[in-house]
Amino acid sequence: MAVLDDFMTAFNARDDEAMCRTFHYPHVRFASGGIRIYETIAHCVEQFDFARFAARFGWDHSEWDRRTVVQATTDKVHVAVIFSRYNDAGDRLSEADSLYIVTRVDRRWGIRSRSSFPTVYVHTRERFDLNHFSAHKTEEHGCIRTSCYLAKV
Q1: pLDDT tens figures, 20-69
Q2: Deepest of 34, 75, 120, 127, by most Cβ within 10 A of its Cβ?
Q3: At 48, which helix (H) or strand (E)?
Q4: Is 79 exposed, middle or buried (0-12, 13-18, 19+ CB in 10 A)?
C-alpha cells in the first residue's frame, strides 16, 4: 500500500511530477466515460492541471476511505478503493469507488491502471443517473452510493 500512500501524498501536495512517478507506463485511466493513456511520465505531467482540477470541484484535498486487496500475485495487486474529496473547510464534497491495479516492474511497485465509477456527490438527495449507473440516497450519514447494476432509464 506504500505506493498508494505516495500517490495520495503527492496528489494532495499538488505535485504532478511526484504523482506521476507513482505510476508505471503506459498508465491507463478509465473515468468519466472515457479512457486516458499516459505513455510516459512526461506525458502524464504535461496533461494534469491541479489548479483547474481544484477550481472545477472546489477541491482542497482527498483521503482514502477504504482500500481492500481483492486479488494478488507476487507482481500484481488489484485494490478496490473508495476515496473522498474535501473542500478547504473540511466538508466532504464527493466520494468515488475505484479499482487500482498495482504492479511490480524491475523491483519497483507502481500504479499501472485506475478505473473509477462515477463520482457520487454526497450533498445530493435525489435519485439520479450517471452514465447509466444508479445512485440512491442511503440512511447512512445521509450520503448516496452508486449501485452496481444498470439503471432502467
Answers
A1: 999 999 999 998 889 999 999 999 999 989 999 899 889 999 999 999 99
A2: 120
A3: none
A4: buried
Residue 14 class from Cβ within 10 Å (0-12 exposed, 13-18 middle, 19+ buried)?
Answer: middle
Residues linked to residue 92 through DSSP beta bridges, in sequence order: 86
Return the number of other C-beta atoms located less than 10 Å from residue 132's C-beta. Answer: 12
Preceding peptide of 26 cis, ω within 30°:
yes
* 29, 36 contact by CB (below 8 A): yes
C-alpha cell at 152: 432502467
Q: Report the distance separating Cα 57 and Cα 45, nearest Å.
A: 20
Residue 13 in 3-state DSSP? coil
List, in sequence order, every residue forming a beta bridge with 104; answer none if it has no partner.
109
Compute the distance between CA of residue 91 and CA of residue 28 in angstroms, rounded to an integer.
30
pTM of the model: 0.78
CA angle at residue 146 from 65 to 11, to 5 degrees?
A: 40
- pLDDT 10s digits, 79-119: 999 999 999 999 999 999 999 999 999 999 999 999 998 77
